[in-house]
TrEMBL record:
It comes from Flavobacterium azooxidireducens. Keywords: Membrane, Transmembrane, Transmembrane helix. The chain crosses the membrane at residues 12-32, 315-333, 340-360, 366-387, 394-413, 419-437. The keyword Membrane applies. PANTHER family: INNER MEMBRANE PROTEIN CRED. InterPro entries: Uncharacterised_IM_CreD. It comes from the Bacteria. This is Cell envelope integrity protein CreD. The lineage of its organism: Bacteria, Pseudomonadati, Bacteroidota, Flavobacteriia, Flavobacteriales.
């Protein structure tokens, strides 16, 4: 009579126990993920604080010619003494804003040495912006305003910008033969931007020549991004930098023919016509909201070290599950008994990889940390396997398998566009290998 195998000694029961242990190990793995997230949040806080002191994102809008004008309003008022209606004329001062006919910008962005506080670094830059362009004679007739009501002698020029405190030099505009200095003024637009405005501007030459050229420059300290508003009838912008991973953002993208991105930096050019945007070259009463139509560059780190750690930890379940599966297949094929406690030690060693990874990354680089942490865990598990499996053939196979698995995950983490494709193909091949090696296992049999 054939001896009946105890269910708890069968391969089915053992794989159920190993699967349950895998789920239990997700608890400490989740703690590791929380640690990575906590360190990442702390880094963002430090980066935000240091960037605020150095200089935040830059948004620029200008220069804008501002000319006040008079509006006369007639009204009838009743006087009880004379029992008559008397005509009165009230005068109100309003503002007209005129944008440049041409606006050209050349910006050179230099990424300076990262600001460091404790273990955290913040990428910051210095931006030298040079502007040139021209104004044409303002057309008030479009709004039916008589020449005698225009206050030519009260005209000024203004620019609007964020990050006012990080401007590193005086801002002077040369209009014709005259030079005007910009000074901070009260913000009347009820937004987060600041306004710089010149003193009274002599528009006599503009009235005579019907066109006047201007030039000015601004030196900024900043971080994160630089955006411009295309307020010229023709707006041209050129930006160059030593930052190798720009993200072109905003309402307009640079011309593909003149765009160059290398490991040493980038160059980009924009050309925007007034036909490409939904606001005119002049505005009466208030300035239009042109921020949604701005363009520029975001200086971002595509995948920082904490993001890489977070992505690596997401594969923790896969690493633990596949490692346990390898041990289980070896156990089933070789008839070597592996205790659930030994599985637990192996699982904890796999989780230690992620704590080693995040701690070493903060003091070096992600690549070096990955190599050191991966090699440490592979050696530890391989040596431990010798005492479990009682030979060197199977531990060598385990070491090679873990090396392949960690290398595969590292490649996926480094890839951006093809990560999903490569990951899917890799998992398919792993599944095929598991199906092949497990095809002859008797799941009801014990050891």
């Amino acid at each position: 009579m054939e001896k009946q195998t105890n269910f708890f000694q069968s391969n089915t029961a053992k794989i159920i126990m190993v699967g349950f242990l895998t789920l239990i190990l997700l608890i400490p793995l989740q703690f590791v993920k929380s640690l990575i997230e906590e360190r990442s949040i702390r880094q963002k806080e430090v980066v935000s604080e240091t960037s605020e002191k150095w200089g935040e994102d830059i948004y620029f809008y200008g220069p804008i010619l501002k000319i006040p004008y008079k509006v006369h309003t007639e009204s009838l008022q009743y006087e009880a003494k004379t029992n008559q209606h008397v005509k009165t004329i009230s005068t109100e001062i309003r503002l007209a804003y005129f944008f440049p006919e041409e606006l050209k910008n050349t910006t050179d962005v230099t990424m300076v040495k990262p600001l460091q506080r404790s273990l955290y670094k913040s990428n910051v830059f210095n931006a030298q912006m040079d502007f040139s362009g021209s104004y044409v004679f303002p057309n008030f007739k479009i709004n039916s305003i008589a020449d005698e009501n225009i206050m030519w002698d009260k005209a000024t020029i203004l620019i609007r910008t964020t990050n006012l405190k990080s401007i590193k030099s005086q801002v002077n505009l040369k209009l014709g033969d005259s030079v005007y200095r910009f000074e901070p003024t009260q913000n009347k637009q009820n937004d987060s931007m600041s306004t710089l405005e010149t003193g009274l501007v002599n528009l006599q030459s503009l009235q005579q020549n019907r066109k006047q050229n201007f030039t000015f420059n601004i030196n900024y300290n900043g971080s994160k991004m630089i955006h411009f508003a295309p307020i010229g009838k023709t707006t041209s912008a050129k930006m160059s930098s030593n930052w190798p991973s720009p993200s072109f953002s905003g309402n307009f993208l640079p011309n593909d023919k003149n765009k160059k991105i290398t490991s040493k930096g980038f160059e980009a050019e924009w050309e925007v016509l007034h036909l490409n945007r939904p606001f005119p070259q002049q505005s009466f009463e208030t300035l239009p909201n042109v921020r949604p139509h701005a363009f520029g560059v975001d200086f971002i780190t595509t995948v920082d070290e904490y993001q890489q750690n977070e992505r690596a930890s997401k594969y923790g379940f896969l690493v633990i599950g596949l490692t346990f599966l390898i041990f289980f297949l070896i156990q089933s094929i070789s008839k070597i008994n592996i205790h659930i406690f030994q599985y637990s030690m192996i699982g904890l060693a796999l989780i230690m990889f992620y704590t080693l990874l995040i701690s070493i990354t903060e003091h070096s680089s992600f690549t070096l940390a990955y190599v050191v942490a991966g090699a440490s865990v592979i050696v530890l598990i391989s040596l431990y396997s010798i005492s479990i499996l009682k030979n060197k053939k199977f531990p060598a196979f385990i070491g090679i398998s873990l090396t392949f698995l960690y290398t595969f995950i590292f490649v996926i983490i480094q890839m951006e566009d093809y990560a999903l494709l490569v990951g899917s193909i890799g998992l398919f091949l792993i599944l095929a290998a598991v199906m092949y090696f497990s095809r002859k296992i008797d799941w009801g049999a014990g050891n």
